[in-house]
Amino acid sequence: AQSVTQLDSQVPVFEEAPVELRCNYSSSVSVYLFWYVQYPNQGLQLLLKYLSGSTLVKGINGFEAEFNKSQTSFHLRKPSVHISDTAEYFCAVSEANAGGTSYGKLTFGQGTILTVHP
Amino acid sequence: DADVTQTPRNRITKTGKRIMLECSQTKGHDRMYWYRQDPGLGLRLIYYSFDVKDINKGEISDGYSVSRQAQAKFSLSLESAIPNQTALYFCATSVGPYGYTFGSGTRLTVV
């Protein structure tokens, strides 16, 4: 079984400050990793994903994340946030091994609400 | 039109009533999923289907049932709604273990 823990339920920051949203996962097999964003009263939008290759993944809206296998982490970062980044962010994992019981199923973290203040 | 369409967008229903949430997709994906979102709990998987003849329970399937009427349609039913089923429900599709597309969600309130 796999699980995801987002270490901060709420992160308040000021506009133009850097931000890091932390995500740790647990899995006994290889995984794919994702970050989704949910703006108020909207559905989920994919920010970025790690499938293989370079551990530093760049996504939309200036976000990036780094996959750290030894620490089982996939933290999301942005060097300078805007008011419009205010949203809830979800880290998610799916099993990469075909035939596994969790193959193809996304498991989500609890979510982190990012609030950007002027 | 949206790739994944959920109906209704909002619904208020009474305890004990049967209700169906519908999902249709134009992505041509074989895999479809139902998740529910609760504040502080993220999204949790209710049911999933990897093709028309394949239905599987997720982590919180009690009180729910599903029907995969066609490749493009996947419905979620609450046989007898209860207040703790008040949540935001999402349908999703995928072509494999990644590449998910989510619907806009159905906000269900059980009173």
How big is the Rg of chain B? 13 Å
- How many strand segments of chain B? 11
| Residues in helix, % of chain A | under 10%
Q: Shape of chain A from CA axes? A: globular
Question: What is the helix content of chain B?
Answer: under 10%
Radius of gyration of chain A: 14 Å
- Poorly predicted regions of chain A are none
Strand content of chain B: over 45%
Number of helices of chain A: 0
**What composes the largest sheet of chain A?**
6 strands, mixed
Main structural class of chain B: mainly beta
Q: Could you describe the 3D structure shown?
A:
The complex is a heterodimer of chains A (118) and B (111). Chain A has 118 residues and is mostly beta strands. Chain A has no helices and twelve strands. In chain A, strands 2, 5, 6, 10, 11 and 12 form a six-stranded mixed β-sheet that branches. In chain A, strands 3-9-8-7 form a four-stranded antiparallel β-sheet, with no helix packed on it. Chain B is mostly beta strands. Classes of the chains: A mainly beta (118), B mainly beta (111). At the A-B interface, strand 6, strand 10 and strand 11 of A face strand 4, strand 5 and strand 9 of B.
